[in-house]
Amino acid sequence: METRARAPGKIILSGEHAVVHGATAVAASIDLYTDVLIRSSTSSGTDDGLVELQLKDMGLVFSWPVQRIKETLPELGTALSPSFFLSESMKSIATLVEEQNIPEAKIGLFGGVSAFLFLYTSIQGFKPATVVITSDLPMGSGLGSSAAFCVALSAALLAYSGEKIIHGKPSGIDNTVSTFGNMIMFRLGELTRITSNMPLRMLITNTKVGRNTKALVAGVSERASRHPDAMAAVFSAVDSISKELSSIIQSPASDELSITENEEKLEELMEMNQGLLQSMGVSHSSIEAVLRTTLKYKLASKLTGAGGGGCVLTLLPALLADAVVDKVIAELESCGFQCLVTAIGGKGLEISSSCNSSTCHPSGEI
Ligand SMILES: Nc1ncnc2c1ncn2[C@@H]1O[C@H](COP(=O)(O)OP(=O)(O)OP(=O)(O)O)[C@@H](O)[C@H]1O
Ligand SMILES: C[C@@](O)(CCO)CC(=O)[O-]
Ligand SMILES: [Mg+2]
Questions:
Q1: 172 CA from centroid of ligand 2 (Å)
Q2: Residue 166 near residue 111, CB atoms below 8 Å
Q3: Which residues pair with residue 340 across a beta bridge?
Q4: Nearest ligand 2 atom, CA 304
Q5: Ligand 1 — pocket residues by CB below 6 A?
Q6: Within the chain, how many helices (H) and strands (E) appear?
Q7: Nearest to 76 by CA among 98, 96, 103, 101
Q8: Nearest CA-CA partner of 18 in 276, 312, 302
Q9: DSSP for 90-128, written as a single string
Q10: CB atoms within 10 A of CB 188
């Protein structure tokens, strides 16, 4: 029995970090995906066999004997476990992950492998299987690689708690946009699906500076506890920016003049959001370098995702000549950055299953 799922990464047009504190944010899926394939073993239900996680792009394989998992995580082998097991199980999960001796250069994977073990055992219990992950998304770059990983894995395993392991206190926006795709307005767990009435062409520049979303999210929360009134005003300003940005991109704009006018408003909102993100302490010198470069071409940019490095969004006006775009990309890549122009607002989560008659269960379960 094989089950496949794929989920997209995302960009946040406005509202990152503030959305963790109740502000509105606007996000869109992008045409970069994480794919999950689960191949169930025929020895399911017995105590032998392995649970194997293959991270294809990195050439890494992690595996655990089913019995080892069973003796270390007995509480997770029942039906879908409530999330309160998560705190109880994290120490045991860490033990199982430490045994894999993840290479030092890839130690950022600790969260992802932990999320995998939690989701897999919470949902599948102690059944042997091979899980193969491939992804177009740069990890730790602000494009929602953790959400795409957890959504695709969760969808294939029917659960949803992995992002908490990786983000600490996720707002849920990344998982939501990776699940539903297209473009959404999101606040306090509530989503509104929105459709853009204007061309939104974005340049994504990856500073390739690694960072940790959980630490960045925690840092903003700590700053908010030190300066509650000031940060509440910052979050409220971001909330207004997101609401205004959402109404601008949905407003009818058929002629070039109105599109250009809307683009200029979007550019100002992006610059304002970037300034507020700097006040939250999540910008970075590499992000500022991208901002300076694109500003030379009178283009507006903002970090997207958790910041601290990672990716920067630049709005490319509909009338901007491709030759100018090429010059901007060439200058950014000469600084060591990686640029990509991707469609935004594409499909969300996709799942498919296939099996041959000898291994398929009547319910189609793994
Ligand atoms: N394909 C994958 N395989 C295994 N683990 C992954 C994969 N993609 C992401 N992860 C896990 O998620 C971590 C990156 O998540 P993080 O939230 O820090 O960055 P991001 O999701 O790319 O950016 P942002 O949250 O700002 O959008 C990785 O270090 C790894 O632990
Ligand atoms: C920084 C943050 O707002 C978005 C990360 O892509 C965290 C979250 O909302 O979970
Ligand atoms: Mg993430």
A1: 8
A2: yes
A3: 204
A4: 6
A5: 34, 55, 108-109, 111-112, 133, 135, 139-147, 149, 166-167, 174, 212-213, 305-306, 310
A6: 11, 12
A7: 96
A8: 276
A9: HHHHHHHHHTT---GGGTTHHHHHHHHHHHHHHHH-S--
A10: 11
Residue carrying structure tokens 């974005």: 202
Main-chain phi, psi angles of 340, to 5 degrees: -145, 140
Residue pair 26/194 in contact (Cβ under 8 Å)? The answer is yes
Give the model confidence (pLDDT) of 301-321 as tens digits. Answer: 999 999 999 999 999 999 999
| Confidence band for 8, pLDDT divided at 50, 70 and 90 | very high
CA distance 118 to 123: 8
Q: What percent of the chain has pLDDT over 70?
A: 88
Give yes or no for a contact between 202 and 11, defined as CB atoms under 8 angstroms apart.
yes
Given the residues 47, 174, 255, 322, select the one marked as catalytic. 174
Note the pTM of the prediction, 2 decimals.
0.80
CA of 120 to the centre of ligand 1 (A): 17
Query: Do the beta carbons of residue 83 and residue 172 sit within 8 Å?
Result: no
Establish whether 174 is a catalytic residue.
yes
**pLDDT tens digits, one per residue of 64-85:** 999 999 999 877 665 555 555 5
10: CA distance to ligand 1 center in Å? 12
| 14 and 300 Cβ atoms separated by less than 8 Å | no
Q: Which stretch of DSSP H or E encloses residue 194?
A: strand 190-194
d(CA 313, CA 204) in angstroms, rounded, equals: 5
Question: Is residue 280 a contact partner of residue 234, using CB atoms and an 8 Å limit?
Answer: yes
ipTM of the complex: 0.88
